[in-house]
Every structure is written in C-alpha cells, then in structure tokens.
Amino acid sequence: MELSPWLVFLFSVLVQAFAILADTNGRDNAGLSGIADSWNKKPSNWNGIDPCGDKWIGITCTGNRITAIRLSSFGLSGTLSGDIQSLSELQNLDLSYNKDLGGPLPSSIGALSNLENLILVGCSFSGEIPKELGQLSKLIFLSLNSNKFSGPIPASLGNLSKLYWFDLADNKLTGGLPVFDGINLGLDNLTNTKHFHFGINLLSGPIPSEIFNSHMKLIHLLLDNNNFSGSIPPTLGLLNPLEVLRFDNNKLTGPVPSNINNLTKLAELHLENNQLTGPLPDLTGMNALSFVDMSNNTFNASDSPAWFTTLPSLTSLFLENLRISGQLPQALFSLPAIQTLRLRGNRFNGTLTIGSDFGTQLQLIDLQGNQITAITVGGSQYSKTLILVGNPICVAGSNERYCTPPGQSNPTTKLYATTKNCSALPPTCLSNQLLSPTCSCAVPYTGTLFFRSPSFSDLSSPANFVPLEQDMKSQFTKFNVPVGSISIHDPFFDSNNNLQLSLELFPSGKIQFGEQDISELGFLLSNQTYKPPSKFGPYFFIGKQYTFASDVIIPSKSKPNRLPLIIGISVGGAVLVVIVLALVIVIARRKRKPRQTEERSQSFVSWDMKSTSASTIPQLRGARTFTFDELKRITNNFSEANDIGNGGYGKVYRGTLPSGQLVAVKRSQQGSLQGSLEFRTEIELLSRVHHKNVVSLVGFCLDQGEQMLVYEYIPNGTLKESLTGKSGVRLDWRRRLRVVLGAAKGIAYLHELADPPIVHRDIKSSNVLLDERLNAKVSDFGLSKPLGEDSRGQVTTQVKGTMGYLDPEYYMTQQLTEKSDVYSFGVLMLEMVTARKPLERGRYVVREVKAAVDRTKDLYGLHALLDPALGASSSALAGLEQYVDLALRCVEEAGADRPSMGEAVGEIERILKMAGGGGTGPDSASNSMSYASRTPRHPYGGDSPFEYSGGGMPSSRVEPK
Predict the structure, then answer these.
(1) Which end of the chain has fewer beta carbons closer than 10 Å to its terminal beta carbon, N or C?
(2) Is residue 880 scored above 80 in pLDDT?
(3) DSSP 8-state secondary structure symbol assigned to residue 788
(4) What is the spatial distance between Cα 399 and Cα 604, in angstroms, rounded to a whole number?
(5) Which of 779-783, 917-921, 939-943 is the least confident region?
(6) Is 762 among the catalytic positions?
(7) DSSP code of 226?
(8) Bond before 756 cis per omega within 30 degrees
(9) What mean pLDDT comes out for the span 169-176?
(10) Would you tell me the crossing angle of helices 818-834 and 733-752 to the nearest 10 degrees?
(11) How far apart are CA 755 and CA 736, in angstroms?
C-alpha cells in the first residue's frame, strides 16, 4: 500500500519541524549521518538527530556547529565519506588507530577551511594524498603516517604556511621532495614547520638543496628508510634549530658537508647504511650530540678522530665497518653519559686501555673484528659486556670472557618492564583483563610507542624508563584523563631503528575505560599533546582497538520541555496529531507482516549481549548453551595439548563432551577480528540451518565475559590446506569434483531451501572443511546475510568479503544477491584446478584463466596453469573443459549472466559422471582416500586472510576483467 503524496509531504514537514528544535546545525547533522553510514560500527549513543544536544561520544560542538570528531581506537571500519565536506566548522578530525578504516581520502576534505588538525594515524587509507589538502590554510597538524598512501607528495602542501607538524611516514609514497618550481610552491615554503617526518616510504631522487634555508624552524628532519640518492646538500648546515637528523638507510653518496658542525643543537645524528664517501665527518663543537650512527658507509680510511672525546652528552656511538684505525683513546670510556660503543669491523689496534674511571652507565663495548692485541683495565675489572672476538688478543682456545661470541655464554640482558607492587599473591584476572602495576585487575588501553630517535641505547636500565612512566602519569593527571597506573615493557629497536615500547594504561577508580575516556586519551597521544621527556625524542603511537564494557550505558541528558515551541511551529497542532496517528495506522498495516518476519529473523541479533542469565539467552533450536566451566572442563583447562588452531578470531581447542562426542571450541580473544555482531550472526544462522554440507553448530558460550562457539569436530582440515599440501590429504581429479559438488550443494541449500534465504558472503577454500570421508562442509557464517521477504532477492549492505573472491558487481553497487556467492564459488572452482591463491603478487586467477583459455586446444590450453598434482592429460582430467566453462560462467561480470547454485550443482553432477565418479555419497569418497604422513592441522583456526570490509578498494586490488 502506497502512502498518498500529501501524507508524505506533511510527514516530512513534521520531521523538519522537529529537526529545527535540535541543537545541531542541520547541514552538520546530515554530514555526520553520511559519515556514520559509511562505517560498520559507531559509538553507542550515536542515535537520533541531535549530536550536539545529546552529546554524542567523540563529538565536540561550539554552539550548534560540530567542531571536532575524535574517535581513535573505536574499531571503525569502512571509508571516510565525502559528506565530511558538510562539516564546514570542523577544526579537529582524529580517526587514528582504526586499522580497518581505509580506502581513498576524499578530495572534498579540502573544503574544510577551518580544519586545524587532521590526524589519521594507523589506519588503512590508500591511494594518493589529495592535492586539495593544500587548500586547508589553517592546518597546523597533519599526521597521515602508518597508512597505505601511495604516489607523490603533492606540491600543493607547500601552501600550508601554518603547518607545525608534518608526518607522512610509513606509507608507500614515491617520487621526490617537491620544491618551488617557479610556478608552484613546495616544501621549502614551510618555514614555520618544525617536523618533517617522511621516513619509511619509497621516496627517491636527490634531496634538493633548495628545500633548506636559514628561515626554517625545523627541529626534526626524518628522511630515513627511503631511496634517496645523490649527495647531502650543503644547505643542511643552515638549519641551526635542528635537533634530530635521520638520513639512514638510503642510497646517498658523496661527502658529508663540512658545515654539518654548524648544527650545534643536534642531539641525534643518523647517517648509517648509505654510500657516503670522503673524510669521516668532523663533529667537533656539536656538544649536544648524544646519539651518533654513521656505520656502513665508505668514508676514507682514517685514524681515530679527536672529536671522540669531546662530546660531553654522548650516550651511544655506532661507527661500524668504516676502516678507522689507531688506538682508542682511554677518555672515550670515561665520558659521563656513555652507554654503548659499537665499533666493530674497523682497524683499531694496539692496547685497549679502559682505565678505572670508565662511565658508570657503560653497558656495551663491541670491538669485534679489529686489530687489538692487548687490554688494560685499571682497578676493578669491567664487568659489563665487552666483545673482542676477531681481534689478535683472542687467540685460538682463549677462554677469556670477552673472547666468547655473543649469544653463546654471554648472559642475556634483561629488558626493562614495569614492576608490579603486589604485597601478596596477585589476583587472577579475567581473560579480557590484565594485572596493573598496583596489582589490581582491569582492562587497559594498550598500544605501542615508537620513538624515532631516542638519545640512549641501554634498554635494561630503569633510569631510562621510570622517568617516562612518572612523566606520563603526571601529564595525564593534568589533562584530567582517568589513568590510574602505567605499565611499559619489552623495549627493542626494530629494523627501522625505531625504539618500540609496549604501553598499557590502566583506568583509575574503575575496571574499564568508557568511550569518552578513550576518545580523549587517544587524542592526547595522536596529536602529540602528551610530550615525553626530551631524551626519548620524536615519537608516534599506534593504539589497539579498545573493547568497551558491554554494560556501560551512556545516559543522554534530558532535554528541556519544548512542547510550546512544537505547538507554535506545527500549524494546527491538532491536525498534526491526527496526521501522525493516521501515519502510524497506515505504516502499521503495511509493516505488519514484515514485522513478524523481522521478529523471527532478528530475535537473536537484537538479543541483549550484556546479560548472561539463563532467562535472557534465547532457546535456539539445535544450539546448546554452555557455561565457561563446562568448556574449560572438556578442553582440559584449554590446555596446549588441545590447541588445534589459531586465527583472527582466537584459538580453537579440541574437546570431548561427556557423551563422547568430539567438538571444536573456538574461543575469542581480546582484539579479535570477529566481534559480537559476527558472533551472534553465526549462532543464529547455524542454529537453524541443517545440511550434511554445512558445518554443524553444537552450541555457544556467553559466560564470564567469554564468547565461544562449539562446532562439530572436522578432522581433515580446510580445503585450502589440502590444496597447499599442509593437511596431508591428497585430492585427485575425481575427489576434487566431489568436494566441489559438496560445497555447491551446501551453498545451494543456503540460497534455495533456508528460510529466509542466506547469502554466505565469504565463500573461499579456507571456509570449506573436509570431514573424515572428505565430505565438504561450508563453514564460517560470521559475515552471512539473510535476504528478507521484501528484498526481492537483493539487499543493500556494506561490502564485506575476502579479496580475490569478492564479486565486483557487489563491490560496485553494494547490492548483495545470491549471485555474489556464485562469483566466489567460481573463483573457488578455478582455485581447485590451479592450486593457486586467487590473488597473489598482482596476479588474479580469474584474469589469468580467461586470458589463457583456448577452446581449440586440448584441455583448453591450460596446461601451464593446472595444478601439476592433477596430471595434465585428457584421460586423467575428463570433463575439465566443461568444468572450466562452468567456472567462467560463475565469474561473469554481471550477476544476471551467472548460473544459480542449483544449476551449478546439476552441471557438476554431470561432469562427475563424465570423470567416472558417479558415486557422490560419502563412501565413494572415503574408499579412495589416501594420506601422507602428517600431523593434521585443524580447520577452525583460519589463515588470517586479507579480508576486505567496506569502502574503497585497497591499492592491491586486481580488478577482474
């Protein structure tokens, strides 16, 4: 029944009247709604039409305008909608640490003329950085590091004259550093910028001399881990304020400019792993230097330089493989702050004289591969690590401690970790909690701190880390963030020479942070509001998704009584009441039958996950509810012996029920890739589908904060493991056809016999399991979607699936139909005969097969693509041509051109008869089974696939042609 036009019009007028009453500007509200619609998840109180008045989490308003969005570590996935341009008063946008938030950055973001902070750290944004960012004339803080951006740095960013922080590190950027070319401004125009962080990219070409000038205020210049070539420009010496310089791990050549010692404020100097030539740089007068690394270059051979002993702040000196000769000055070991001397691979000779006044912080002297003939240590022996392996002093058979190669009998240095002040036996925490330094259980906010150039190298000394803990606690208290205690641990230098440090922030006065707490805490770390002690240098933080307490309810503040205003706006209030009542009656009549369907299909999805009482858990047919203690008992306390798999969701354990039935228990873990929605979806769907080619759900557990699924135990692993040889199950041609037929029957059942029909949405070889008789069983329904009665065979939904199997029509239109599964099944069919990953190193199996097919040749000319284990002969592969034809029909571009799964089942049955495998029952499979010697891996663990969820296509996407 259609609503009459006048009712629709009057209803829209009524809605707009209520919108006028909201505290939020209508354009802002519409823009924020568009942004939220592009995400799979949003904060708990994002409901209604009034973000400002209802104080939506992560939203800051000035008057009725939205001025800030701060949602770091919220587990957002999808894309950033172009609707962002509607928020014309937006000043701060921070979506950091949402690793599944990606796609291209919309160019419309350039319309945000008031934007001051753009922070997208640790997401998955891809494509080129929009040149329109150069229009953000008020931008102060631009942090796009740790994404997947590619292409060149836009020259238009040179227009950002107010920019203070400029971080593009850890992406895939190419090209050179843009400078003024007579028409367009370049990075040399950014004289007020203090931070150039461009490390860990693919930037190349020479470092232009024009980029540096005496007007610049740069204090951090980080160009490390790129492909820069040519010489270091002498204009570098004009950057007098510079404190940190990283040119390491490039392809730089030529001499280091002689005026480098003009940089008297420089504290960290990294030139290692280049091809620099000329004399060893003279660092005399650079009294602020604390960390120097110039290893692995080709400087001219030289004697030990005089500046070695003139740097009062020096903590770490790394000069490896530089052909430096002469005797090491004794004063070097007495520098007051010295911690590490790594001088291996040189030509230091004579007697090594350490003296009795060596620095108290000196932890390591590494002189491997030099020419030292004797050693003198005044007073007590030097008891820390001294390595002289490869020197004449270490003759054959020497048992001196310093002649022992590192890693054999030398004691392992214990890395720093925050101590826990437990006066008695510490409590046992729940699985989602950790023990805090104050010995209480709580759910911390966790992540990794990356220090790009610390001024120290000793990772065991509390003196280096306790000040960080104290300073961080003090500053968080000042910012009124409820952090009760802080734990840091496991420091190490990664392959990019960044110091990584695990961080755990525990809440104060409660067990768990709230959503608003994380919004504020994430912003303090992402926008550099928190400043660590100067010895740690520049840093960035990558936070993990925070799992919020299910019983936290953010109350919305009561709104003032606006009834008089409503009456005033609504001309003829009584008439409007009648209209509303009429609309309710009409809509109720229209929706009565669908609502019954909705109540049936949504009964579990809408189940309140906060409660675990038996009275609130729905009684689902065929699915049993287990307690945590029951599953703990049947898995022998989740013992390692029963650990049979591991994937993005968590670990899988073998268990034995009291009845003797073997089961597989999939236990979620904190930070799991599968959330509550997927958990509920899988329970609801599997509890009402029953077919021999669909994996059976025995039950589930939602107890003591745990989410666990209990399946029938499937002993022969996944189809993917068989194709790659990991499971040890060998599949010949007829067995593969039987497996494909079983999978097709399972999918056809979902499409044609389930009520309502179900689209699996993630058909792939790792989601097809093989039982003891090699029956195929379709599994993993976390992404599945039922098609309602009114959907006419399709539903509009956020794009989800696995790259390589994803239906391009579904991706382009977001219209999900059964034919999307047919496409994925066609890719699976091609994978079965090629044993190749669908998408690997830029090669797409669909495209490769289409390009290679020659129907005039034997086996369609596919000999080079077929799995060698099949034996490429017509007699061994009877029916292959018909099989390939069916697979290519399944992967047609348009869903309308693809067969139904029922049609595919019939065709595969005919092909199986052609191959001499008419028996399709389980016995026919088991009679021909053969096994290699193996230790079976269990199917439920998964293989951590690269999954795609919504939004723009990742840069590695290979479009099917």
Answers:
(1) N
(2) yes
(3) -
(4) 71
(5) 939-943
(6) yes
(7) S
(8) yes
(9) 96
(10) 170
(11) 30
Structure tokens at 332: 């070097």
CB neighbour list of residue 510: distance below 8 Å, 6 or more residues apart: 442, 482
Instruction: Tell me how crowded residue 923 is: count the other CB atoms within 10 A of its CB.
Output: 10
How far is 795 from 807, CA to CA, in rounded Å?
Answer: 14
pLDDT of residue 678: 75
Q: Is the pLDDT of residue 12 over 70?
A: no
Please give the Cα distance from 441 to 15 (Å, whole number).
Answer: 48
Q: Is the pLDDT of residue 159 over 70?
A: yes
- Say whether 111 sits in a helix, a strand or coil: helix
Q: What is the 3-state secondary structure (H, E, C) of 112-142?
A: CCCCCEEECCCCEEEEECCHHHHHCCCCCEE
Q: How far apart are CA 737 and CA 910, in angstroms?
A: 11
Enumerate residues 6+ apart whose C-beta is below 8 A from 935.
none
Task: Please write the tens of the pLDDT for every residue from 508-533.
Answer: 988 999 999 999 999 999 988 888 98
Can you read off the two tokens belonging to residue 405?
A: 């190669």
Residue 710 has pLDDT above 80, yes or no: yes
Task: State how far the Cα of 219 lies from the Cα of 266, in Å rounded to an integer.
Answer: 9
In order of their start, the domains of the chain are: 17-202 (3.80.10.10), 301-412 (3.80.10.10), 434-543 (3.30.70), 604-713 (3.30.200.20), 719-961 (1.10.510.10)
**Separation CA 833–CA 888 (nearest Å):** 13
C-alpha dist (Å) from residue 492 to 200, 247, 272, 500: 18, 21, 18, 5
pLDDT for the residue numbered 755: 80
Contact 459, 415 (CB under 8 A): yes
Q: pLDDT tens-digit profile of 241-268?
A: 999 999 999 999 999 999 999 999 999 9
| pLDDT score at 793 | 59
**Bridge partner residues of 709 (DSSP):** 666, 700
d(CA 15, CA 776) in angstroms, rounded, equals: 53
The answer to whether 294 and 320 are in contact (CB under 8 A) is no
Residue found by looking up tokens 């709230």 in the block: 514
CA distance 950 to 131: 24
Contacts of 928 (CB under 8 A, 6+ apart): 732, 734, 735
Question: What backbone torsions phi and psi does residue 694 show, to the nearest 5 degrees?
Answer: -125, 130
Comparing 367-371, 398-402, 603-607, 624-628, the range with the smallest average pLDDT is 603-607
Opening angle at CA 256, ends 255 and 262, nearest 5: 150
Q: Which residues of 839-871 are buried (b: 16+ CB within 10 A; e: fewer)?
A: beeeebbbebbeeebeeeeebbebeebbbeebe
Which of these is catalytic: 28, 54, 248, 762?
Answer: 762
Measured over the CA atoms of residue 947, residue 949, residue 950 and residue 954, the dihedral's sign is negative
Least confident of 43-52, 904-913, 939-948: 939-948
Can you state the angle between helices 818-834 and 880-890, rounded to 10 degrees? 140
Q: What percent of the chain has pLDDT over 90?
A: 53
Among 86-90, 139-143, 353-357, 375-379, the range scoring the smallest mean pLDDT is: 375-379
Q: Write the DSSP string, 400-445.
A: -GGGSPTTSSSPPPPPPB-----SSSPPPPPTT-EE-TTS-EEB-E
Non-local (6+) Cβ contacts of 563 within 8 A are none
Please give the single-letter amino acid code of residue 60: T
DSSP 522-544: HHHHHTT-S---GGG-SEEEEEP
Contacts of 602 (CB under 8 A, 6+ apart): none
C-beta neighbour count of 21 within 10 angstroms: 15
CA distance 747 to 763: 9
Largest alpha-carbon pair distance within the chain?
A: 105
How is residue 395 written in tokens? 């003759």
Mean pLDDT within 912-933: 51
β strands within 798-885, DSSP E = 800-802, 815-817, 839-840, 843-844
| Those residues with Cβ within 8 angstroms of residue 405's Cβ, 6 or more apart along the chain or in another chain | 387, 389
Residues whose CB is less than 8 angstroms from the CB of residue 235 and which lie 6 or more positions away in sequence, other chains included: 209, 210, 211, 212, 213
